[in-house]
Fold these 2 entries.
Entry 1:
Amino acid sequence: MKYSYQYPHPSVTVDCVVFTVQNNFLKLMLIQRGAEPFIGEWALPGGFVRIDESIESAASRELKEETGIENIYLEQLYTFGKVDRDPRERVISVAYYALVSSEEQIIAADTDAASAKWFPVDELPRLAFDHKYIIETAYRRLQGKLSYQPIGFELLPPKFALSQLQSLYEIILNKKLDKRNFRKKIQKTGLLADTNETQKGVSHRAAKLYTFNKEKYDILAKNGYYFEI
Amino acid sequence: MKYSYQYPHPSVTVDCVVFTVQNNFLKLMLIQRGAEPFIGEWALPGGFVRIDESIESAASRELKEETGIENIYLEQLYTFGKVDRDPRERVISVAYYALVSSEEQIIAADTDAASAKWFPVDELPRLAFDHKYIIETAYRRLQGKLSYQPIGFELLPPKFALSQLQSLYEIILNKKLDKRNFRKKIQKTGLLADTNETQKGVSHRAAKLYTFNKEKYDILAKNGYYFEI
DNA sequence: ACAAAAGTGTTTGTTGTACACCCATGC
DNA sequence: GCATGGGTGTACAACAAACACTTTTGT
């Protein structure tokens, strides 16, 4: 008990809602708790913010430590601070949401594979703390942002077919989209660059692959451009 | 030094960016610091989150204590947690933004009037900590939300004229809007209720006064309706 | 009667929506 | 040659944008 203060201080943690799209399902990663409280229950990856790291660094670090995932899209979601959200002590949690490409979904080898798992958002187990509520908030935010920020690409491999992109939108927004209109709209942004490649190993006509031109988007965005789909 | 922990804990504060519209300017409230660090400089109202109150309660409480303002629109903005944002110790700040009607702008009598003041957003003094950055974030958020959430009404008295509402949009978005198109659009939402009153004491044709039908909006919003202006 | 702001419609261009068939490829 | 998804255009409706004059009221 080396650290003393004149007034009580809360603990500050980060919790990460990591989304991916896998086999036509939107999924998120949970880990099984190995310690009290809520031992054995599923929870979001996360942990304490250290005194010498920024909150975002803490989120990246915990993600890497607990799931092996690194270098992904990570954005602050909301800060949850109800007095009794942790039964032990006062804990304020800064939640982040993260997006992982379907290619990098593999939980790294240095992780206890039994304890980290992808769950479809509609088939979540019982969750520790207020994590159910955090996930609902993250899901709503993802749905909202998808339509007016180019974040869908973060969930795809660097080279992707238009049908993959459309399917991703349909899965997350939970509604069918018109193929021709979707293509028209996304092409009209001018943000997709044609690679001269096509899909490999499919048993039908191979689709053209595109990449998202992030540099072009960043320049446009700086000048007031608004992505919308 | 009665409170001891095994690991160092950060302090958690709230900071509030309180907006109002006054004399055709978007303004926000600052208080002059009476203590170190940054003594004498201007800063956002705010303070420490107590161990037994939620973060939002802390924001309301500090606002009332420091500025006399209460019962206003208050929404979490972002959590700022760079390691060195406070020169004394590690402080994580959960920022809120608040909207005050132009009628309630008066800084309450129980406040040291010399120390709290409204500043136009484009004429801010030098600010303590990273408060300049927090304000920029809040301003961008306000501009963004104004177009797709009915928050403009929070900055007006309960009964208002359409020209007041338009002027508010023009001031915050910083661009001229077409009067006829604006009126058409806002009337078509069906969310304004006609009071049978008109402006008093104006030296020209008196405008009709309307109220915003929040109940109706809440019901529509629950069923997927999206406000847009 | 004049100053000041309130109030009101129409036209034109742009964007969204609905919709069905041929094409390329692997087996 | 057939099954599978890839790729394409047009017509119609809805919405956004541009634009100017009359009305009401107080002084």
Note: The domain at 11-148 of chain A is CATH 3.90.79.10 (Nucleoside Triphosphate Pyrophosphohydrolase).
Entry 2:
Amino acid sequence: MKNQEIAKIFYEIARFLQIDKVAFKPYAYERAAVSLEAIKDDVAQIYIKGGRKMLEEIEGIGKAMSDHIEEYLKTGKIKLYEEFKKKLPVQMDELVKVEGLGPRKVKVLYQELGIKNIKDLEKAVKKHTIAPLFGFGEKTEKNIMQGLEFLKQSKGRSLISDIKPVAMEVYKKLENLKEVQKISLAGSLRRGKETIGDVDFLVVSRPDKKYGRGSPREAAKNTQKIMDFFVALPGVKKIWGKGGTKASVHMADGFDMDLRIVPEKSYGAALQYFTGSQAHNIATRKIAIDKGLKLSEYGLFKGSKIIAGKTEEEVYRALGLPYIAPELREDQGEIDTALKNTLPDLVELKDIKGDLHCHSNWNGGENSIEVMARSAMDLGYEYIGISDHTKFLKIENGLDEKKLLKQKEAIKKINENYKKKGIKFRVLHGCEANILNDGSIDIKDEVLAQLDYVIAGVHSTLKMEKGELMERIEKAMKNPNVDIFAHPTGRIVGQRDEYQIDFDKILQIAKNTGTILEINSSSRLDLRDLYIRRAKAEGVKMIINTDSHKKEQLLLMEYGAMQARRGWAEKNDIINTLPAEELLKSLK
DNA sequence: GCCGTTTTCGGCCCGACTGTTTTCAGTCG
């Protein structure tokens, strides 16, 4: 896709224009870049289909932008960008990744010291040639030095399920402070994005009784105490900043945390603002402007009078909108849908009645079937499905037909035992079978037919050519014993891209065969949000599973549920919101 | 440079914090 390449160039042009102090144009280029990244169609295809006219129908793309895009598609270059780069031949995208370095400082560093890239910057820091520069100084040089160090250690954005438990530890510490009256996670963590850049907390500090109610100093002392506590947390390696209402730190684990403290009357507006996304905020602030109002983190204002701010619901209502769930706030159509009052009634974690993709110690899993079942009961589930790997996967000690039938008997006994004790819980018996290269399943059909359900997935020869891979998948999905297609695209967040698949075709096959698509809650997070939305639109049913290999991983369901919500999924799109009997009836 | 149920001209989201140029530019979210 050329979209990302062109977007990258537009971002760069925006930076160059910022350096030249050109007004408003940088914003226009940034918006065009964001827009290109957001659309799912390839600009090259759009151009072939409808020429410049169709390009200009894209949000933020006008005459000049379509000029640039046409030029890039034809020549592979954009002249304006080449000219800028000639004047300032530096690795801009790389250098501005250093915390505290922006385009203007980068320009000075090039002009004064000839710094073109990270390597040059490191050398200059070592020689202490930065501090004497006009506009820089000792502290700036030290910040650059530390920024470089952190950049080297950085693994980029973290998987949500890796970072949320760490964030919640800090959350609990802050929540326990007597000075803290209210606290919430904000940012991409609250929106449930699959990867997280930094962790944001929003806090209301308890008013200090010493001062009069409503006085500006009312909460100042407690606010300061919370700030002091925050920057002194264990694991804090660097304090980027600490003021009266806002602090930012870098953690030893390699990510940043931000804390913002606001008065109670602004809590809702601040939560709305701090949750983002930025694109959603810009959209909501524009609605405010259209109504002659002003929206900031302090509230929604008519002139200097605050008309909403205490809760998010209040802010949205005053803008003429229903409440929009954080997972939807990406400026991907949620505002228009909200205006029409047709937002989806999103599935919730508490709607989930069981988990069908769980492994036991019969194969490579860690815990026994009974222990997995007990953990599922503790989560309030009505059932758990044991779906161990099958024989082709030797590394996971996959089960063959004989062992599967033996496992069936074992599960039958467990269920009989529950019944005797009056425990209303059921263990379902499935397997996670392998789709072999020719599309057949590695377990005989007559055995598959004896299980409660069958999950099938691609676990080998991942790098097949598209047509061949699709034939393979199609054959498996058409198998009347295959109920669920596991981790359909094969991607692993931050590690592996999706296979060469045709998702539209998968949707059509799923629709025609009644095959359920899996939303896998582990580091796969597969399906991703956009695909969930498309599946829902096609009426294809999905299931949220954890792919647990030990009991603790059952808790990953939270992330799969968030992923489903980001894909606009409702309760009736997700089959494991059904009781066991109905769920089994909904399968092939 | 883009955009428009108040506009084809005149706006563009909004604010915190730091370091240094001592009054505000640069950076960040």
Note: Chain A has a mean pLDDT of 91.
